Amino acid sequence: MAGHSKWANIQHRKGRQDEKRGKIWTRVIREIMVAARQGGGDLTANPRLRLAVDKAKAANMPADTIKRNIDKATGNLEGVHYEEIRYEGYGIGGAAILVDTMTDNKVRTVAAVRHAFSKQGGNMGAEGAVAFQFKHCGQILLAPGADEAKVMDIALEAGADDVITDDEGGIEVLTSPTDFEAVKNAIEAAGFQPEIAEVTMRAENTVALTGDDAAKMQKLLDMIEEIDDVQNVFHNAEINP
User: Fold this and answer.
1) Contacts of residue 72, Cβ cutoff 8 Å, sequence gap at least 6
2) How many domains in the chain?
3) Segment 39-91, tens digit of pLDDT
4) Based on the domain organization, do 57 and 34 belong to the same domain?
5) What are 240's strand-pairing partners?
6) Least buried of 47, 128, 151, 221, by fewest C-beta within 10 Å?
């Protein structure tokens, strides 16, 4: 299946995330704790925890740090209780934004998120305001140059829902959240190295922003990202500075 060119925008997003590596450990630790608390500390029986531990290892987190936080979450050590809360809103040009947080103080968190939206020209919305514009799915992205036919055969055989090639040759593999691990493992076993592989909230449609609007939207996203309690920010803007 063909798709519009997303590669530059995807690389832009990845680059912005890479610039914020200082927050990676904090976010991964919270994800580990919530996943372990909800599904238990057994990696073989808890897919969400496996993904969180994979992220921790990719960020070079020591094994003892990973284990200590799993133990905290499962009651073996005293720890902080984090609550997951999602906020929704609108950015520049009506772009949709989802903000996933993990917090031990939701009054503090909602105030910080609301302040970021209002300061940078966005608007907080009610629950359900924009979530319908996103799909919860697994997303695996391969750089231009990968063998499209081979990737498609491997991905679909492993249970992928769709394989999309954009105008620049980048390949996007979409899966259900439950099939994500199996598809990712099959693609990697075949020798392909994804640029991005994650369970995400994927925008069904996008809003193109350029010039001043693109800059304003990036400021809004950056301010939200800087909030300590924010885990992930999803949006449907195609930012072209």
Assistant:
1) 33, 78, 79, 80
2) 2
3) 999 999 999 999 999 989 988 899 999 998 888 888 766 666 788 899 999 99
4) yes
5) 210
6) 128
Give the structural domain span for 25: 1-81
pLDDT tens across 154-201, in order? 999 999 999 999 888 899 999 999 999 999 999 999 999 998 899 999
Q: Cα separation of 16 and 21, whole Å?
A: 9
Do 108 and 216 lie in a common domain?
A: yes
Which of 98-136 are b and which e, b meaning 16 or more Cβ less than 10 Å from the residue's Cβ? bbbbbbeeeeebbebbeebbeebebebbeeebbbebbee
Same domain assignment for residues 60 and 98? no
pTM exceeds cut of 0.85: no
- The domain boundary, picked from 47, 81, 115, lies at 81
Instruction: Please check whether residue 112 lies inside any domain of the structure.
Output: yes
| DSSP string across the chain | -B----HHHHHHHHHHHHHTGGGHHHHHHHHHHHHHHHH-S-GGG-HHHHHHHHHHHHTT--HHHHHHHHHHHTTSS--PPPEEEEEEEE-GGG-EEEEEEEES-HHHHHHHHHHHHHHTT-EEE-TTSSGGGEEEEEEEEE-TTS-HHHHHHHHHHHT-SEEEE-TTS-EEEEE-GGGHHHHHHHHHHTT---SEEEEEEEESS-EEEEHHHHHHHHHHHHHHHTSTTEEEEEE-EEEE-
